[in-house]
Every structure is written in C-alpha cells, then in structure tokens.
What does this fold into?
Amino acid sequence: MIAAPFTVGFDLDMTLIDSRPGVHAVMTELSRETGVYIDADAVVSRLGPPLDEELAYWFRPEEIPAVADRYRALYPGYAIKPTPAMPGAAESFAAIRAVGGRVLVVTAKYAPNAAQHLEHLDLAPDILVGWHWGPKKGEALLEHGATVYVGDHIADIHGARAAQAVAVAVATGPVSAADLEAAGADVVLPDLLGFPAWLAGYLAA
It folds into this structure.
C-alpha cells in the first residue's frame, strides 16, 4: 500500500458536531409517526453507538430495519439545521491542513447524512467513512493511513487501538474525562479547542 500523507481521523457525533438537538428532533418525530414511546432525552444522553442499538430500546427486533430506514429518511429534514459544530472543529481541521495533513471522518452514522452535516457546517474532510463503529473504525484508519484518531467515546479509543493510532479523546460526549482516561486514551482534552496546540506539540516531539 502506498504510504499516505499525515492523516488525522475524527469521530462525528459529539466530537465534531453536537448532534443532540437534531437527533432529539428526529426521534420525537419518529415517535409521533410510529405511536411508540421514545424518550428522546435518554437517546441523546448516550449518543455514539449505531442507530440499531438505540432503536432496540424501543422497538421489537423485527421492526428495527424498517424503523431505521424511516429514521434515516426523516433525518435530513429534522436534524441538519439545528445541529451546530463543536467549538474548535474548524480550527482543528485548519491546524491539520496547515501542516499538509489530511482530515478523515469515520463515524457510525449513515454516510449521506453525515455528509450533509459536514457540508452544512462548512467542515470539509478529505475522506468520509460511515457505518463504522468500535474496532471496525480501525479498518478505515488503517486503510487511509491515519495515525491519530479523535473521538468522544470509549469505542473510539478501541477504534484507534485497532489501528495502532494515537487515541485522542475529547470529553464532549456521554463519557467523562476520567472514564476516557481509564479506557486507555493517550490524551484527554476538554474539547477540540485544545487540539491545535496538542497537535503542534505532538508533531514537534
């Protein structure tokens, strides 16, 4: 495989974007349409895992494929506009590009919906990979030569480990800084605002 340029991977939900308002809106509409109670507040308190895992709290297994399809169809109309970028996201992309690097986004989210978020927020990665979760994220990191992966969830640390990449955790999601550290993150930042300075130190080391 041809050696890739310096590449940094990022998770999407609760790392680059605060997806809580959008997901809350979609789940509320999905509950209205299906007549099935969904506690949208509970849903957005545990963002990160694949959609099917969340839907399993509310629907029977045989219902999940159709409901997931409907969720993804509703998503663009309800979730894109209310979802903001996380502070420091644009600056982190700029810091990587300033040193000639590439930006890779690897997310458990359906890639077309992830792409709409990034486009709406003027966050343009060089590569986007969807439907990857946990250690499977490591496959995408290896494929694209990423040596650093930034995420907010313990599963993101597992993804970095699977690719022998540096695991940078941000405490902006459902997992505390202490738990991210205990899970083996190489560095834990309060948020992405600290990433450019960390990157500068990492590259200078």
